[in-house]
Amino acid sequence: MAQRGSYAKGVAKREEILERALDVIAREGYRGASVKEIADAVGLSQAGLLHYFDSKEQLFTEIIRKRDEHDHVDFSVSDGAAGREGLLRVIAHNAQVPGLVELFSRLSVEAADPAHPAHDYFLERSRGLREGIAAATASSLPGGIDPDTLARIVQAVVDGLQLQWLIDPSVDMVGTLEVLLDALSSMNTPTGALDEALDGVLDDQRSAATDA
Amino acid sequence: MAQRGSYAKGVAKREEILERALDVIAREGYRGASVKEIADAVGLSQAGLLHYFDSKEQLFTEIIRKRDEHDHVDFSVSDGAAGREGLLRVIAHNAQVPGLVELFSRLSVEAADPAHPAHDYFLERSRGLREGIAAATASSLPGGIDPDTLARIVQAVVDGLQLQWLIDPSVDMVGTLEVLLDALSSMNTPTGALDEALDGVLDDQRSAATDA
DNA sequence: GTCTATACTCTGATAGAC
DNA sequence: GTCTATCAGAGTATAGAC
Q1: What is the pLDDT, as a whole number, of residue B81?
Q2: How many domains, in total, are found in chain B?
Q3: Mutate which of B122, B152, B171 to disrupt the A interface (most A C-beta within 10 Å)?
Q4: Residue A184 belongs to some domain of the structure
């Protein structure tokens, strides 16, 4: 079902466009990319590209959504090592694709407007992240930090480090994040509840990504 | 000296423009503010406003620089309670002025381009922040974190929380930051070296702001 | 489904009068 | 120093042919 001729083709083409756009931005960077530039890159005219998306804002929102899907597949599930290590691998990968980081950061700000298509997506993404940590930690953070707050802190550090790194690429995002995670886990529980907590994170991110 | 007729007036007017622009953005928010909108707000034509600034980018960069000056005066020096409390007060104030936070976040991303006028300013600002913490802590972080890394983490959390708050204003920036600072200081030294460390932060930020 | 062509809006920037 | 007027350009979105 749900594969009736032109509809299915439209969806497939749409996915193909997103894959290509993602690849181009990752390899060539985001230099204030316009719809026309993306169109050229994927081999369509500007009008042809917008046939598949309502607007530029929606197009870029979908590109970021697609990236989240990739991150989950590539860094969390493939070898079974999710959680802390998965998160660190995502960050390490980000350091290879400044264009995607810039697009993400830009959207993060523009999505402040509740009318922006990425607004709800970011809300949902953030909520999934927090719930993942909260659920995984449950009652296992003895003298520690509220799981919800912990999640916000980790998310904030990741996003903030990206901003610093965009301006100064010599910033070591992975190393800095590791220092923080080490510090926080050492005070939560001797058995490293934080690490376990993070195991649920990316799974929930995936859910958020495909749901919304 | 340095007060020769038209030159002095030009400088004074420039400062007045920045003050006004700052006030307007703080009160009415930043809704993709254009040069024309700022011009209207300060009672000049667009051309009249650009007479004082080379470009839109420079104008906005100066506005942010002016804000840093205000933050320092209003929240760090006035009552002698600098450091941790000063930082928390700045964040609490930020929660009252979404327009300024949005402008700052937007510039943070756009300044990734080395040609952007705010690029060097952000580099300098960040450097001053780190040096402040490093100098204040010196050799007083026993089993703790490298001062430079600590500074990056604190800065990242502040910036990242602002991104979250822009999308969801219910986010408690101050409370979340306090949790992190409490956690970090409890593990550094029994006497709270982190708090002392932060005492040097905003002073250095001022230096950076006026230098560059 | 895709393209060409175009319309329209904004915005930043400049020239030149006063 | 400030304004009016204007320009040039980018960029999105739409109309309509094929």
Answers
A1: 44
A2: 1
A3: B152
A4: yes
